[in-house]
Amino acid sequence: MTKNRHFEIFLATSPGLEDMLCSEVKLKGFRQPKVVPGGVTLRGGWPEVWRANLWVRGASRVLARVAQFRAEYLNQLELRSKEIPWSELLKPDVPFQVEVSCSSSRIYHSGAAAERISKAITETLGAPDSETTPVIVRARIENNFCTLSLDTSGDLLHRRGHKEAVNRAPMRETMASLFLRKCGYTGQEPVLDPMCGSGTFVIEAAEIAARLNPGRSRQFAFERFATFDSAAWEQMREVKSQRTPEFHFYGSDRDAGAIAMSKANAERADVTAYTTFSQATVSDITPPAGPPGLVILNAPYGTRLGNKKKLSALYRALGTRLLEHFKGWRVGIITTEKSLAHASGLPFLPTSAPIPHGGLKVFLFQTDVLK
């Protein structure tokens, strides 16, 4: 895994959203991405790793596959781990940590496996291990087969670096971007979120339309690797594809605090010029002037906020308002409860499989153009 060598790169996402992530990865110009359970794989070198972290909106983390080998015993795991040229990958003066998951294997104790891999790295490289470092070596031992990867992202990629305030039940930016894509959003239409919370959908939609790189405001774990080339990285970051969106993006919420959060987050993301946030109940929302677009929201769930009886009335009020005033618009509602979604009275298309989110399973309910 030297600078010029290609290797397997894994971009992780929530199960059920792999196709949407693959679609984005192809659009961003990465060659021959493949859908696999839990994400997308592609082949490339370190520049592709850097670009994936900087450009791709839907990935939760980017892993560089270091090695794959059979390991049925801890001694075997340690010996094979020592064969990896760690000095080409990590720095001896930068702490690292090892995280292991085990499944259907003779090696079943993840803590013991992590100790052996950590020992192998320390003895061959000299770097200390630490529980607080962002440099993480991840091992998956499945069916007696070990895959070792470097977590090149560090913090999960939904932490864009410019969103400080969140509400009680936030939608992760990575997931929001893929739900927007699943609704057919490409940046060429207005978007409105009538329960905007901290503004995630509105800000993501505006950033997509403005062609702003999602990773532009943060740092990554790969900046601490031995393979890192600071001059090449700065050159990559300096390439700007930003444009002025043709459309505007709108968020409303009944809570004044949510509106204040959304405005602050939009300002940090540098999309204030393209976004408008206002306090309103769902019964008061009106379509903005201009062409129709997409209404999308992460609605309250019965298991999340409020109780189902009150929420049914809220969904009914939302559906009535949209049917009466938003003809020509499409709607996407994320919720855990099919009964709540159908309480809206909206003409939903067939739903796909549920998506894991915050310990729950959520569905995306979509309509065609409202008539």
Give the beta-strand count.
Answer: 14
Name the overall outline: elongated
Distance between the termini: 55 Å
Q: Averaging pLDDT over every residue, what do you get?
A: 94
Assembly type of the shown chains?
A: single chain
Strand neighbour order, sheet with most strands: 2-3-1-4-7-6-5
Structural class: alpha/beta
Short description:
30% of the residues lie in helices and 22% in strands. The chain is built from ten helices and 14 strands.
Q: Could you explain how this protein is built, in words?
A:
There is one protein chain. The chain has 371 residues and is α/β, with parallel strands linked by helices. The protein has ten helices and 14 strands. A hairpin with a 2-residue loop joins strand 2 and strand 3. Helix 5 crosses helix 6. The N and C termini lie far apart (55 Å).
Spell out the key features of this protein.
about 375 residues; 7-stranded mixed β-sheet; elongated; alpha/beta; 10 helices; about 30% helix
